[in-house]
């Protein structure tokens, strides 16, 4: 509960800081050496001025004990941060001003309690203070960008350990840190290419040739990491293990260098020497302190904390001085030990037991948690200098009392307290000697105070009480905006034994903790009491400036390193063009052809844009920006990559497909992009644009909304930053990074009908397992509209006339769904034909593709809607209403028409007259009966109500959902998704990809999906079957693999999160997906990319490259 400030030069006790009501858990001092902050088990943080011990503020934002506390070293601005973590699972960033010492009582708070009872244990700042790493009991490691443009922001949340993370340490320079866990591993983390990569150190590893004896108890110990650290030069990572050993690892390779076994108990202290990179210190519960030489792996010196008559004291903490000339440690017996060079003569005058007589006196607290001394009614920092006593409360002689700050120049009579026994209470009281009493007087020790003495003492007390408000105002004067003024405290009416406080009421111990009474010497007057003492002299301005400049350089280096790596592209399948050319051993003529084509394109576009890496995974690799030259009649001259798309899809599909389903345009993906998009016009040429020209400057965000942290877009150099290529790329670049920033064309933006989360009657949104009625007439109308508008080439196999086995009106079932980024974005459906009598499959299938078009009627209708409409038996002159764009429109059926070409087909066979007098053909499933709330004639549309919308929705079949029903199952999945989205694996997939930042994502991934979209669809009962939910979930992994390397971190996480959700869906009785998460985490190696997957990716790249070459050459030939 006490904080003591000592002089390291001579061992003097300078001051005691009181105020906390429970044990101190952490202490921190800002680098200017002006403020000291302490966190406690009482859930509060108190900040004092070191120079005067004046309380600056009390921060009360936590609801649990403070576990760690530190001033952020980032010093570019006057507004800085004090950071704290707590058992309540929160990390708080307290903003304060270095000039005014004003603290904002409302912190920036991150609540990181993912699991019940989880708490944050430790944290570490980077050397420059730009980044903060936090470890917690829920096995997570989190990293915050403290110096971000909008304040601290979380940039990493990952679960790399199987047990609590209770030790963390950033390297002395750069963006590396090490995390230690009770699971027996330590991870070395480094930020590279937009991701935090880790290297795992296994504590079970031993040096080559090491043999463990069968009788050795270490084989039965579950190894845990006790503490981690770095050498001064960051060459080595140091880990303390619970088998009492210390292991030294090469930080760059993770190779075990030394195993140090000198300690006899666990080691919790690892401190690198602040000057010599070869030296570090270790301290443990065995009472031993070792100085080690990292160059030899041997100890230089050992100190043993022997305590006479008590054995030894376990070392609890230890710190070097900034110059490395001394270190201090504390032990389990409350001892402070200082180790240094020399004979220690300056310390010998200091007694072994050093306390102030006021250390344990009771305090009174006000509503703002400020304190005053209960007896003197005075704030601790404004009390007169205390007396120096031993552990039993006995005062030391005058020569030692002069060691107390403020008593250095006092006369001897002012340094001798008067001790008397209060017989009515039976306790000792130290009273002041008489002012004229001589120290050597024979009656000095028996003289009792006179009434004059008591009156003078009472006046002094009254003066102290009058200063209570003044000293509180003084304490908060510079913090008017952040700290409320404490209330006034009542003063006692008289100074008598009946109302004078006695010993502490609980937790009493003998000696100094029971000291009571007025210890002020009578020789001191009010002017002396008012004098402000300086306990710790300020640093020289030159020293502060030097440290500040050093911290600024470190933080700048961290920021530059971070943004440099953030601009680099992660390792993806979009290989650098030169690497592809070398890999495929292209001839010099082909290389020259590519460069010549680039020159032609540059001349046409009047620009010098180029790129150093084309997309090899994109199915529209050459047709990414705008629709290219196309011909309805000649496929060999079409600049469309239908062939590339056809090969990739057919070769990667695992479905057994008939000849009719081997369509040339099958692909995956969907979109749910709601982000705002820029409206600037693209200056690109419409006809001759390829994948190399379509890349834009995209700097990945550090937020969790980046589904595509690995992308194919290359940056421009307008910012003046040159980006580095992939590993293995030669220094000489074939292409330059001078790309200009370009917008995503509207044609590539995902259409609204494919991004809906609320179910609608029209347009039809296909879902796996749907039973629908296919209308040939409607399909032909769609084909005519596509040709009329020249939207895309129609493949013969997808034309209705080629499907002779399909009737004009056919009952079918959706077997598979794929998507294509053409544009327009198309849906490719593979349909199974059903027998209308028994609803069984006939074995015949056909394929079609379509997209929603204005003024084109759906030719696919859900069977349920069709059956309901036919049962209504509509007749002429009946009133109806119809939904168009979420609005009711009204009309009357005029007549029933038939088409000789489509006998018996009800598609658009009603001629209707709208109330606006317009006529049109409609189908029965487009019509709804009118209700009483609607007038007989309504020329204007009426908005549909939510109740009406729900009444018109699809009613799920019982066999399509578990026995509990859709409502219960959706609620279970929604609750599960809320927990799953908090898992670190899901971080990149929680929200839609920002297509402004990653435009190439929309050109590669045809059906983007994310967890928030799936959750919203569950909430709105969008899905007609559970299989439809599984279908969307499967695209989380498919899209990640399509856009990223198969062995990248984001792809691995996509596999893990997909497996987790799929297992959660399958286990109908599971309510908490975190149980499944632990199972998957233990077997996560199963989800690493297989060799076959990597081979598939490489084969895809080779084929696409070959297609690229052929198309480039054909375009070049045609142009010239």
UniProtKB/TrEMBL annotation:
Repeat found in the keyword field: yes
Ranges of compositional bias, category Basic and acidic residues: 687-701
Biased composition (Acidic residues): 657-666
Organism domain of life: Eukaryota
GO biological process, one term: regulation of cell shape
Residue stretches of biased makeup (Low complexity): 601-620, 645-656
Keyword Repeat included in the entry's annotation: yes
One GO cellular component term noted in the UniProt record for this chain: nucleus
Keyword line: Bromodomain, Repeat, WD repeat
Span list, region Disordered: 475-511, 592-738
InterPro entries xrefs: Bromo_WD_repeat, Bromodomain, Bromodomain-like_sf, BRWD/PHIP_AD, WD40/YVTN_repeat-like_dom_sf, WD40_repeat_CS, WD40_repeat_dom_sf, WD40_rpt
Spans of repeat WD: 17-58, 59-95, 158-192, 225-259, 260-302
Biased composition (Polar residues): 476-500, 628-640, 702-725
Residues annotated as domain Bromo: 981-1051
Protein name per Swiss-Prot or TrEMBL: Bromo domain-containing protein
